[in-house]
Structures are given as C-alpha cells and as structure tokens.
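Data availability (excerpt). The following record was deposited with the supplementary files.
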Amino acid sequence: MFNYTDDPTKRYHSWNYALREEFGGKIFKVPIDGGFDCPNRDGTVAKGGCTFCSVSGSGDHIIAPNAPFVEQFYKEVDFMHQKWPNVEQYIVYFQNFTNTHAPVEELRQKYEQEVNLPGVVGLSIGTRPDCLPDETIEYLGELNERLYLWVELGLQTTFEETSELINRAHSYEVYVDAVKRLRAKGIRVCTHLINGLPGETPEMMRENVRRVIQDSDIQGIKLHLMHLMCNTKMTRDYHEGKLKLMNRKEYIEVVVDQLEMIPQEIIIHRLTGDAPRDMLIGPMWSLKKWEVLNAIDNELKKRNSYQGKFNVRQESLVNENRPSLLA
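Predicted structure:
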C-alpha cells in the first residue's frame, strides 16, 4: 500500500507517481473529443447542461476537437512531444461531455479506434453516473481485462440542493450505485468534486470528500476549483450574489483539509484545474497553477501533515449525530 513517504517529492499519492509505479516511466494522458453530448443538455434528463459548463463541455484545451479520433490523438501527442520527446506510452482520455451517453455499439466503435494505436496502454473515460447501463458496464469490464482502464465520474457535489442549483440532474444515490456496479467488474473509479460551488461552505466541501470516501469504493479523486467561465449560466449566480469566488488561501486550506481525510491508497488525480485565460472570469489567481500546487505542498509541510493523516475511511459509516447520507 502506498505511504506518503514513498514519494519524496509529495506528501500525497500523486497521479504522476502512480503512473510511474504502474508503467515504469512518464505517461501522456491524451485528451480526445469523442463527439458525445450530455443527457442534461439534449433533454434526456434535463436541458441547458450544468450551469458551470462551457460550450465545449470541459474540453477547452483539446487541440483539434473536430478532427477524426486518430488525427486528434497524433496532434495531441506531437504537441506533448515538444516538451517530452522520449515518452512512448499513452492513456487516451475521452474527456469532454458524457462519454458513455450512447448505445454500447457506438462506444465500442469509438473506443476501439484508440485502443490499438501504437503506445496506447490505457483508457480514461469521463462520464456521469446516470449514463452507465448494464450493457455499457459489461463492455467496460471487457476493456478492463485488456488494458489499464479508469472511469472518471463527474459527481461535483454530494448535496442535493447544490446539485439542483447547478442543474446536475442526477442524485447522489445514483452515483453510489454506479460506483458499486463498476467495482463489481474491478473497474477503477475516479470521482470528480468541485470546491467553491454556489452556497457551499468549506465545511460542506470537506463533507463532500467524507461522504464519497465512506460511501463508495473509489481508487482516485479529482479536486477542482470552481472556475467561472464566460458564457455559462453560472455567471447569473455570480451577478446575483449567489456565487462567491474562493480566494487562494481559502482554497489551499480546504484542499489540505480534504487531503488529510483521504486514505493514502487513493490516487490524487488533480488538486486544481485549468481554464483558458480568455474565457476565465475568475478566480484569476488560478491561472498560476504551479504556484497553487506549490502552496498546497507548503501548507502540508507547515502543518507537518500528509494525505490520510485523519483517514475518514476508518470512521464508522453510521454516525448517530449525522443524518443518512442518502436522505
């Protein structure tokens, strides 16, 4: 089992460290636009999409989103090789929108184009917990036996009132069930949470982590900062005073609190996010990503702390002083 002292550069179980341990060297995670939509955009469960989501569905950094899949792959790899010319292994990341929101035959046709490309050792599939019918999980189980597979579940919050406010259009209970069914096939699950959603306090942000760790058998977690982007419905909440952008100190303290709660075996895929400068309304301090990551490292050192110091998975799942998590 990973112990934070295994990595002399970090006090948490970083994605970079995990990949080096798995594959023996640096890996590129290659983002691909799979041409999918979302069920809360196309009317399947709702319309308009999540209020924080940009028109690209969180794929703003993909170089050639309209190109054929294989061409997208090579363009991304060529760009990354400008900085790291010797990397030869790749995880293809179906990133934006909901990448299981289609019949399994379409998923198979799209995924298999990438699986057999030279150097591809894994897939990472971004999706929603309400877009995983049994036949899709069966196919994902087949893929999991052939290569290194992650399913990345966009949850964002465990609070139903926040979920309704951001038009998420699925319940926390659906998420818990989806993880259970994926894990029955041995599939690795990475859960996405956003810090700084409208109305959520630091205590609620910590509670989001507590709940997903105690209620679901996940192997990875992504912590995002709430980026307010141009031309999103979230801007209305901001102008109406319903959204207060986090300052850097608040964010760093919350993230370190969350890391202290997360068991050391869980891989930290991300501790902040990226947003295009020309689309970002705020927080503008987030553009200096490495300064944020360094500040998180420094806060851990300042506290003499590390991931899992207060491991919440060791706590009882039933707390008489707290209402049912699925209520």
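Summary of structural features: The longest strand covers residues 148-156.
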